[in-house]
Amino acid sequence: MMFWILIAALTAAATLAVLVPLSRNRQPADAASKADEAVYREQLETVDRDLKRGLIEPEAAEAARTEIARRLLSANERQTQTVEKSERSLQNKIAIGLAIVFLPAATFGLYVLLGSPDQPDQPLSARLEGPAQGQSVDVLVARVERHLAENPEDGQGWAVIAPVYMSIGQPESSARAYANALRIVGPNADWLTDMGEALTIANQGLVTADARKAFDQAVSLQPEAVKPRFFLAMALGQEGRTDEAIAAWEQLLEGEDETQAWVGAARAQLAELQGTAPPLANRPGPTEEDVAATSDMTAEDRQTMIQGMVSGLAERLSAEGGSVDEWNQLMRAYMVLGEKQKAETALKDALTAYAENPDDLSLIKDAADQLGLTGS
User: Fold this and answer.
1) Which terminus of the chain faces fewer neighbouring Cβ atoms within 10 Å, N or C?
2) How many whole angstroms separate alpha carbon 39 and alpha carbon 361?
């Protein structure tokens, strides 16, 4: 409780340090303006006396009176402005005083009402030592990381944190954790498969040499395992080894339950390789992963494939229209190809197509913002 009282006091002090200098009246003193006015009136009387005594000419006296009168009016105006600003300054001081008192008091009151002032402090070190139940994922990860820093040869610890890294979107860290677990504990088909998957995800869907090596080792340990064989079939297709990829997909699909989640994706890959996929005009269009998957093809084949997919989607959307997702896919595909102007044109067409649907229009604009498109 004492800690929060000190915080409130420090808040008040900080507020004073900022507001008090701002409240100071920086205008000329009222007394100075009054003194100037008295001097000018005395000068007028002096001119009148000199004129009566014949010491100055009437024209000179008139000119002196005019100049002195101008200065007198100016002094009077300054005095009026000083009074008005003083009144405003008083109002400002009242407002500042209320802010100095009210803000810290309100902050402290809200904390007492909504917070837990009697709860003891819980520094990170204490939370790391506390029971795991009820703690956030970040704290749990920090606990395991601290343990591994102190015990870097704990293979099971690396195996525990690896899937957690994947779940929070850190595939590179996951792959390193699996690699450490395998180095310390030894070969494990599941760990090898998951490490290969993490490497593939980290490389935007491309099965790299390291990932392929992990999948090969997993299959050597469990020849009938589906997941590593799935990725190996993908790798063959990405490498342009079409016949081998077709054979791998057919072998993987043989006798499998069609209700399995992976079967649909496998059949789509097989149809693509066999040339029996639906016509381009009836397909939703390429994703960024589709484009990335062609990186091992020859430049000519890759360009032909991508341009064909994109052109087919663009023609269908232009002729028949399509969903918001399809328009967004077309814009993304053009950006991947480096054709920003075509992406801008696609955006304008999409905005026109959904001009009467605010919700869909908002989704298209969000996607355009992410791609850096303006529709101009």
Assistant:
1) C
2) 74
DSSP string for 316-376: HHHHH---HHHHHHHHHHHHHTT-HHHHHHHHHHHHHHTTT-HHHHHHHHHHHHHHT----
Question: Which range among 41-50, 223-232, 326-335 shows the weakest confidence by mean pLDDT?
Answer: 41-50
Residue 119 resides in a domain = no
171-192 pLDDT, tens digit each: 999 999 999 999 999 999 999 9
Which burial class, exposed, middle or buried, applies to 231 when counting CB atoms under 10 A from its CB (0-12, 13-18, 19+)?
Answer: buried
**For the chain, what percentages of helix, strand and coil (3-state, to nearest 5) are there?**
75, 0, 25
Q: pLDDT class for 279, splitting at 50, 70, 90? A: very low
CA distance linking residue 213 with residue 247, whole number of Å: 20
- Provide the residue range defining the domain that includes 154: 137-186
Residues 265, 292, single domain; the answer is no
pLDDT of residue 259: 77
Instruction: Please determine, for residue 196, whether its predicted confidence score (pLDDT) is greater than 80.
Output: yes
Model confidence at 153, pLDDT cuts 50, 70, 90, reads very high
Residue of 50, 44, 51 whose CA lies nearest to 65: 44
**How many Å apart are CA 204 and CA 215, to the nearest integer?**
17
CA pair distance 227, 266, nearest whole angstrom: 11
Task: Yes or no: say if 6 and 108 are a contact pair by the CB < 8 Å rule.
Answer: no
In the listed set 250, 277, 304, which residue is the last one of a domain according to the structure?
277
Instruction: Report the number of distinct structural domains present in the chain.
Output: 4
Structure tokens at 237: 């297709």
Location of structure tokens 């081998």: 244
73 plus 169 within the same structural domain = no
CATH number reported for the structural domain that contains residue 246 in this entry: 1.25.40
Instruction: List, for residues 209-241, the tens digit of each pLDDT value.
Output: 999 999 999 999 999 999 999 999 999 988 888
Residue at 232: amino acid letter: L
Distance of alpha carbon 375 from alpha carbon 342, whole angstroms: 10
Regarding predicted confidence, which is higher, 216 or 308? 216
pTM strictly above 0.70: no
